[in-house]
Specification:
2 domains; single chain; alpha/beta; TIM Barrel; elongated
Length: about 220
């Protein structure tokens, strides 16, 4: 499963990219609004920091506007993926852009039916928001599993991108379900590295090594 970072913070992206496990980035207007400077320049730098897919979202609500913005975003860098919200105009725009060989990420997906529609339209990625589905007392992971099963049964090429991830177990369960991608906030990504037994084990080894060094120093001094 590919790991995407759900942020537009260039410093955070660059630091995590050095680890060698970051495959892409997803942004949206809200994330870009939190950063200083020109949003286009920020996207350009993100595309340089991570060579994988970088999702950038349109803000237009009409078909013509989505197409215009989608084309403009795709010209920023070869690895830009145009993020388009799930709606009638969005599905139409996904279909049109796919014919122009512009990759798209269908966002704000909350049901298998929506996921089926955007896949038929030609979306490169589909982003079911599993955390937000959980928020309304439904099972986000079950929706994710149903989407994956439909795509497999129907042999659809659209990749499933688990979004709105809230904690490490969302990442694990998405991987077990067969999701192609998981996009996550920096805090969740950092939590994947941690376990109390790992921290305890490292500290135990360090404490024991200090004793080894102390004994060696004592032996040299005798």
């Amino acid at each position: 499963m590919k790991f995407f970072l759900d942020t537009a913070n260039l410093e955070q992206i660059r630091e995590r990219a050095q680890l060698g496990v970051v495959d892409g980035v997803t942004t949206n207007p809200s994330l870009l609004a939190r950063e200083t400077g020109d949003w286009r320049a920020t996207l350009e730098k993100i595309c340089q920091a991570v060579p994988g897919p970088i999702s950038a979202e349109v803000v237009a609500e009409d078909f013509e506007g989505m197409i215009r913005e989608g084309r403009e975003l795709s010209r920023i860098a070869p690895n830009i993926v145009v993020k388009i919200p799930m709606c009638r105009e969005g599905v139409r725009a996904i279909h049109a852009l796919s014919k122009e060989k512009i990759r798209t990420n269908a966002t704000l997906i909350f049901s298998p039916a929506q996921a089926l529609l955007v896949a038929k339209a030609g979306a490169t990625y589909v982003s079911p928001f599993i955390g937000r589905i959980d928020d309304i007392a439904q099972e986000g992971l079950e929706v994710l599993r149903q989407i994956i099963e439909i795509y497999e049964v129907q042999d659809l090429p659209t990749e499933v991108l688990a979004a709105s991830i809230r904690h490490p177990m969302h990442v694990v369960e998405a991987a077990l379900a067969g999701s192609h991608v998981a996009t996550m906030p920096i805090a969740v990504f950092d939590q994947l590295f941690r376990h109390p037994l790992t921290d305890r084990g490292i500290q135990l080894f360090l404490d024991d090594w200090k004793q080894v060094e102390a004994k060696a120093k004592e032996a040299r001094g005798s």
